[in-house]
Structure formats: C-alpha cells, structure tokens
User: Which sequence fits this backbone?
C-alpha cells in the first residue's frame, strides 16, 4: 500500500531530551574532508569538523556519515578528548520508518472525498507497519489496506534525517575543538581508462582518466581525493551487528597536506601505490565522475607481428598450415627515457589512429594490470590483415631405429628418429615493412639441425624464435630441419 507522511508544523525537532541535549556536528562545521579510495569498492574517509564542547561529558552527533559505513572501523579523536562510546544510527526519517517507530501510537488519518475533493480526517492506532503496509485500528474496525495518508504529531525518538555517528566523549576543558572522524565505507570505487592516439610508426600520446563511482550514500563536497592502487586484503564477516557500540581510546594522527604540483602526484605506500589528485573535487552520491590522471605525449612504442606455428613434428601429425595472420602487439616500455615512466594503475587501454583522410579510427583495446615503472607492456590489439603466413613440412625421413625391446610389461617398444624438413613463407601486402616474430614449439627431445636464410634462436626449452623483417609488398621464407625421436609400442 502506498502512503505519504505529513509532518505537523512546529514539531520538526526530536522529542527526547537526550537528543535535544546533543551537540549536532553538521556540514557547516566541516573543516576538511579527505578520501582515500581503493580498487575494491572501499574508501577511507577522514572528516574534520569543529564543535563547541563543555568540560566533562558531552554527547555529540556527527551527521552525514556514509550510509555504507563499516561502523566497527570508526575512529573519533581530538586533542584533550576521551571517547567513551560510539553508536551508529542508521534508521533514517522516511515514511516506512516513521510508521514502524509509531506502532502503538494514535495518528491522524486523511482520505479524500472523491465527490467533492475535500479531506476527511479521522484517528487510528497503528497496530503494525511491516513492509511499508501499516495496519490501522479505527473505531469501526481494523483496516489493513488504508488508501489515504497518515499525519504524525511528532517524530519518534531514534529517527534521523541523515546517517549519524553518535558519541559520548569527555573533554578536558570547555572549548571549541577540531574533532576528526575516520572510517571505512563500502560503495565507492575507482578504475582507470586510458586513451592512446597513435601519432606515427614509433610514437603515441597517452591520456589516463580516473572514473570514480560513488554508491556510498553520501555526497563528498570539496574533498581531497587520493587513490590507492593494489588489492588490499579485507576480512569478510558473515554478520555485522547494527547498531553498534564500541570502546575507543584517543587516537593521534598526523596528516601531511603538502602542496601538489600540476597533474596527479604519486608515491609508494607499503607495497601499494598512492595517487594524489591535484585539485579538490565534489563527488555526489549516485554519481560517476571522471578526473584526469596522466597525460604523456611522444611515448615511444614498437608494433610487433607474432605468429605461433601450427606445425607438429610427429610422423602422423599435421604437416601444414595456410594463411595464418599474425597477432598485432603494441610494445610500450614504461620508462622515463621513452617519455613515460609513471606507475600505471590497472585499467582498460584503448587505441586510436587517424586514417589517410585525417579521421580518427578505433584500432583495438586491451586491459592492463598495475604496471610498475620500468615494466614492459605487451598489448595485443587484434590481427594483421595484410600479413599472412603459410607453413608446411616438405619431407619426413626416418634416420635411425632401435628395437623392438621389451619394456617390462607385455609391450615392446621401438625407438625411431626422424628428420623433418620445414618451410614457412611470410607475405606482407601492406605499404610498410614489418618485423614478424615467428615461434616454433619443438617436440620433446627435438633439435633444430639447420636453418636458412634466417637464423632462429632458442628462447626457452622447446621453443625457437625467428625475427624476420618482411618488406612492404614482399615475402620472406624460413627453412629449417628438425630431428626428433618417436616411440612405437606394440602389446601382445
């Protein structure tokens, strides 16, 4: 059932004496706001506000904390302040909570006369209010589907218009003090997107944008924002009691607020990496905001074509492949001498290039993990359509045979050795020369005995690699021979 709540004028203050005695600390008392945002929907909020305290015991209400606060992480501290207890009040003032907190109370009801449009008033007792469907007791009976409105004469104790952290503290003296609240909240996260414009065959321009998504239930106005790159371990609790109370000791913290240069600055933080955004910003609740992180021009790169062979050196296996197009890789060294040298947070990197008519075209994308300074990125964007390779094994010759020999079972084995002669041709129909990397997996015990005219090198156990510069409109041929053992087993 739908119902609206009309609040009587003049009763907007809380009725309980305890709440009237609270010192409400709101947005107007805010001195500074800092947010450290992590990758996994987690943020550390550091909120500093001023409040007038009396000597001795004070009840203060820190209004406007994040609705997704992890209350057990909250730390309230200030000079000459001792915190006795903290409570997180999350029952907010809305129609459902207003009815639920008024169960057993008598309220006014309003229904509109459909004939003349006039309001018809009555009174009823709220018997229950589960799931936003109040059950009302009128003089004429119990109504479980009342179609009108409810009017409340007062706001029940415990309802607040904003999520609030309430604390009982002892001040060493009467004074206006700066009080800091730090806590973790879920619901705010960040990610990075990179835009790359390819300038020519060796240089590109890179721009990095941070996208911050705020679902934490609060606006962060004029906040200093820091981003933490890395996966911070969290203990996932099965249940977390709310509301909560905790005992807390005074906590002293030092906040470094150094002036930042133009653009985001970076620093190490333990095993993680921290980015300081240069300007304060406002991030509204339910808002996605993009902020510039880096801009690097003239970054050096190399484009690589890579083909993994589909030839298998076995007497009965595949002996050829046709028209295989190489993978396209952009290789970028994250080094200062290559005009980069910036700790790159994980994200998606998208590449664009202008065609001959000057129109910008999308040429591919890939994702990167956190890339450390001096680390190399190998980013696959797609395939070369103007380069293709064809390979075949021209000849298979048995060069030796030993056996058959009983192998300790009912089977006998015969060891043979074969010589395979292979040929791979790579054709480039494009307008520019291109280096092509061709890799060949060797069978167990296999060895390359000859190769011409291009020399291959062994990269790791069982893998050979050729780097061949294929001219525009040309074809290069790789020939090589492989000797490899083969075992036949015959069982009785």
Assistant:
């Amino acid at each position: 059932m739908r119902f609206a709540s009309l609040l009587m004028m003049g009763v907007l203050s809380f009725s309980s004496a305890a709440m009237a005695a609270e010192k409400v600390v709101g947005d107007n008392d805010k001195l500074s706001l800092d947010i450290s945002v992590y990758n996994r929907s987690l943020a550390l909020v550091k909120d500093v506000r001023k409040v007038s305290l009396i000597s001795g015991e004070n009840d203060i209400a820190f209004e406007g904390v994040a609705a997704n606060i992890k209350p057990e992480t909250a730390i309230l501290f200030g000079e000459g302040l001792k915190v006795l207890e903290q409570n997180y009040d999350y029952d907010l003032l809305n129609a459902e909570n207003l009815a639920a907190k008024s169960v057993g109370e008598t309220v006014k009801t309003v229904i509109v006369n459909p004939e003349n449009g006039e309001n018809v008033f009555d009174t009823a007792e709220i018997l229950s209010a589960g799931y936003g469907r109040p059950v009302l007791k009128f003089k004429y009976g119990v109504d479980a589907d009342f179609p009108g409105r409810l009017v409340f004469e007062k706001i029940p104790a415990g309802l607040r218009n904003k999520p609030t952290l309430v604390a009982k503290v002892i001040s060493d003296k009467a004074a206006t003090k700066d009080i800091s609240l730090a806590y973790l909240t879920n619901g705010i996260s960040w990610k990075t997107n990179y835009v790359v414009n390819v300038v020519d065959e060796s240089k590109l321009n890179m721009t990095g944008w941070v996208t911050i998504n705020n679902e934490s239930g609060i606006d962060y106005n004029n906040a200093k924002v820091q981003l933490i790159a890395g996966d911070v371990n969290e203990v996932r609790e099965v249940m977390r009691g709310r509301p909560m109370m905790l005992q807390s000791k005074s906590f002293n913290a030092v906040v470094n607020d150094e002036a930042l240069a133009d653009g985001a600055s970076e620093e190490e933080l333990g095993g993680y990496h921290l980015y300081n955004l240069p300007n304060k910003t406002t991030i509204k609740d339910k808002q996605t905001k993009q902020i510039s992180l880096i801009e690097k021009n003239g970054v050096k790169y190399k484009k690589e074509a890579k083909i993994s062979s589909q030839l298998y050196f076995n007497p009965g296996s595949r002996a050829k492949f046709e028209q295989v197009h190489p993978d396209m890789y952009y290789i970028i060294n994250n080094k200062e001498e290559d005009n980069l040298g910036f700790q790159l947070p994980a994200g998606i990197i998208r590449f664009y290039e202008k065609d001959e008519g000057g129109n910008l075209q999308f040429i591919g994308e890939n994702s990167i993990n956190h890339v450390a300074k001096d680390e190399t990125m190998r980013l696959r964007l797609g395939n070369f359509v103007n380069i293709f390779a064809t390979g075949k094994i021209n000849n298979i010759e048995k060069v030796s045979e030993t056996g058959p020999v009983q192998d300790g079972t009912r089977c006998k084995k015969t060891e043979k050795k074969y010589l395979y002669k292979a040929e791979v041709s790579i054709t480039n129909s494009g307008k520019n020369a291109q280096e092509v990397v061709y890799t060949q997996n060797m069978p167990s015990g296999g060895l390359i005995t000859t190769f011409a005219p291009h020399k291959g090198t062994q990269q790791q156990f069982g893998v050979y690699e050729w780097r061949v510069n294929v001219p525009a409109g040309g074809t290069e041929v790789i020939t090589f021979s492989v000797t490899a053992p083969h075992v036949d087993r015959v069982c009785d």
